[in-house]
Design a protein that fits this description.
Blueprint: H1 8-24, E1 36-42, E2 47-51, H2 64-74, E3 82-89, E4 101-103, H3 107-116, E5 121-126, E6 129-134
Parallel strand pairs: 3-5
Antiparallel strand pairs: 1-2, 1-3, 3-4, 5-6
């Protein structure tokens, strides 16, 4: 998998996701809600945020990435205009000593991002370092 270093714009996108996570986290909701926040940047530089939406019925829960992608699309952007995505987790007590951390998209979110724009830049940890990969590269054995 080819990776690239973060740009200043990538670091700003991470900051957007972190700020969103700090605003949205709800410690009173069943051990904490909205634990993951995501941000996407479009080709014109607009940033859209989303948070995870947990439910008691697991399959009805939604992750931060689809909420952020949906917000960009609802505002009139096309799929191929969604250029970069990042997700961060809220700093829960059992999360190491890092105040926040960039997390990789889950399998379902990888599918969504690759379907949305295979060339989308996704900021994710690679070998302990935050790097940029293409969404399609997160699905190396995809055959459809």
């Amino acid at each position: 998998m080819d990776t690239a270093p973060l740009t200043d714009a990538d670091r700003e996108l991470i900051d957007h996701a972190v700020a969103c996570n700090e605003r949205a986290f709800d410690p009173e909701f069943d051990d904490g809600a909205h634990v993951v926040a995501a941000a996407v940047r479009t080709t014109d530089g607009a940033v859209y945020e989303g948070v995870s939406l947990p439910t008691t019925i697991g399959r009805a829960s939604t992750h931060g990435e689809p909420v952020a992608v949906g917000a960009a699309i609802a505002d009139g952007h096309t799929h191929d205009e969604i250029e970069t995505c990042v997700a961060v987790s809220y700093p829960l007590p059992d999360h190491e000593k890092h105040p926040t951390r960039v997390i990789p998209p889950c399998g379902s979110c990888r599918e969504l991002l690759a379907d949305c724009n295979p060339a989308m830049r996704v900021i994710t940890p690679v070998d302990g370092e935050e790097r940029v990969v293409q969404a399609i590269d997160l699905l190396p054995t995809r055959s459809w």
